[in-house]
Amino acid sequence: MTRTAEQMKGRAGRLTRLMPSGPSTAARTPFVLLVVLLLAGGLISLLLLNSALNEGSFKLSKLKRQTTELTDEQQALQQDVDGYSEPDALERRARQLGMVPGGSPAFLDPDGTVRGVPEPATAQPYPSEGPEPGTSAAGPAGSASAPGPASPTPSASPATPSTTPTTPPPTSSGR
């Protein structure tokens, strides 16, 4: 049973007609699915990355706004502190608390000897330059008083506590 070339051609021809040459559609399917999955995964990861960046941007803007508000509040508080630490404000508060200026100081040497003459502080008349905060020009009781020399006693004596509140006024948020 020898086959001739024509018979081989005929069989081979029929086989080639039954099986098309080149990559088949069955072989292309996994490659197409892989490419589609890679594209879908890339798009999903870009979407997630974009969402995370937007969330971070919102947090950043919120923190910047809080920083600005806190900076404004800190500046307002610093102005209040500066107002309370001015020399005349400190002196006014000290007088309200019944404090008086001290006399000449006395010092202790390391060996225990006293240098200077210690003497107790006494309340001396102190001229006031204007009305105290919270009082009008007419006086605390609302009666008009004629301008004249300062009163010989301080505004608050050590025996009677002052009625002025000792807490500082409420601070604003700086806006």
Could you characterize what this model shows?
It is a single chain. With 175 residues, this protein is mainly α. The protein contains 3 helices and 2 strands; from the N terminus they run H-H-H-E-E. The protein has helices spanning 5-18, 25-84, 87-96; strands at 107-108, 114-115. It has a two-stranded antiparallel sheet with strand order 1-2. Mean pLDDT is 74; it is low at 134-169. Residues 1-21, 73-175 are annotated as: Disordered.
Task: List its salient traits.
175 residues, two-stranded antiparallel ribbon, 3 helices, 2 strands, 48% helix, rod-shaped
- Total of DSSP H or I helical runs spanning 4+ residues: 3
User: Structural class, from helix and strand content?
Assistant: mainly alpha
Q: Low-confidence segments, ≥5 residues, pLDDT <50?
A: 134-169
Shape: rod-shaped
Note the main sheet.
2 strands, antiparallel
**Helicity range:** 40-55%
Pfam families: DivIC (PF04977)
Biased composition (Pro residues): 166-175
InterPro entries: FtsL/DivIC (IPR007060)
Region (Disordered): 1-21, 73-175
Structure summarized in a few sentences:
The protein is mainly α and 175 residues long. The chain is built from three helices and two strands. InterPro entries: FtsL/DivIC (IPR007060).
What layout of secondary structure does this protein have?
Elements: H1 5-18, H2 25-84, H3 87-96, E1 107-108, E2 114-115
Antiparallel strand pairs: 1-2
